[in-house]
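User: Hand in any protein.

Assistant:
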Amino acid sequence: MKKIKITQVRSAIDRSERQKQTLIALGLTKLNASREVEATPQILGMVRKVNHLLKVEEA
């Protein structure tokens, strides 16, 4: 399965609790934190919900 690299580039301050929990579920807790994850439909759905806070690249 394809992998993507997600990086948090904007803060979670003043965001809804749901968006904060989505970032935590993706494994991103700090600004400029990066993770390499498999591009499953579940992960892509979470990324879509908080895409304004992330930078997404192909790994």
Remarks:
- The mean pLDDT is 97.
- The first strand starts at residue 3 and ends at 8.
- The beta strands are 3-8, 34-38, 54-58.
